[in-house]
Amino acid sequence: MWSNLPFDVLAKIFSFLSPDSLARARSTCRHWNACVDTYPIATSFILLSLHHRAWFLALPTRNRGQHCYVHNPVIDNWHLLSLDFLPDPVRPVASIGALILVRPTNCTVLQLALCNPFTRQFRYLPMSNISRTNPAVGVVTSDLVQHGPNPNFRVYVAGGMSEAPRGGAMYELKLEMYDSMDDTWHVVGFVPTEFAVRLTVWTPNESVYSNGVLYWMTSARAYSVMGYEIDGHRWRGFGVPMADKLEFAALLCHNGGLTLVGGASEGEACIWELKGGDRWGLIQKVPMEMGRKLLGGKSWGSIKCAGSEEAIYLYKELGSGMVVWREMEEKAGWAWFWIEGCHSIGGNQVPNLPIKGVFLHPNLFPFTF
């Protein structure tokens, strides 16, 4: 019966499979493999992103071999992926659908690249017009097409150090933007000197895009936020709750709005939403028992955070476990969960490495970027 089903019907069934299950299905027979190849958009791009949660991908923060670890939230399982196809060790900047924007760690001058760790594809972006070190990077994606074969996105680069006209170095005030539509960098504006300094010295080079504004969190205590309104070309800065008490702080996008996650020296971690203007509203607190389990006697300064539209993860090392605030499948609300860390894969013990995590929707279809 299964071999006689029309391709469009079989593709609809395949669209409900997770990427690992889809990979096994396409290896079953030539008919099923041909179906996946014939209807890649139905089975890979849009429907899979709607039916399944994003996966958590963890890259070791130190050069411990070219590999990464991914957590499948559907079956609560860890996988090891080799990154030996990458020409250089990299660290993640942001996820774009099934792709990861990365930058090599062995070069001081900014160089960006795209990769798909599941299809082992890799491609450098063109070099920016201005050679600069340690700039802040921001990513804006088109939600409607970011899961397609040619995801539309823009990369903004602000601040950093560039060569001065008479030698030496200076803070770079030009704002550059890479557009994937024409595969070209453009100078689109300027950064006030104060913001250029803060973007260069005090940001971890990560951004959040929400309602037409790119936001960066400063890493210096007391914490603060910088925002760039893209259409109006305006910069502004504002504070965060408990700014002088937070030991770590991270910006995320939740329910389409700007969200702040931070842990205070008093021992609790909270989640706030930007309600309007510069006003923050408390929406959640990390359960004390889970927080203590995650910290393991250390301070909140050792914690990192990653988020998607359907989950927020607090984590430390690969094997330390993660505290997760996640949307329930029935969409009746959000709840707190504990996810065990990765200790072994396929019976082989995994070292407890410091990691950097991002979310992505795994896709097995080759992208044409």
UniProtKB/TrEMBL annotation:
Pfam families per the UniProt record, alphabetical: F-box-like
SUPFAM superfamilies with a match to the protein in the record: F-box domain, Kelch motif
InterPro entries given in the database record: F-box-like_dom_sf (IPR036047), F-box_dom (IPR001810), Kelch-typ_b-propeller (IPR015915), SCF_F-box_component (IPR050796)
Highest taxon above the source species: Eukaryota
Domain (F-box) ranges: 1-48
Matching SMART domains: FBOX
Protein name, UniProt field: F-box domain-containing protein
Species of provenance: Gossypium klotzschianum
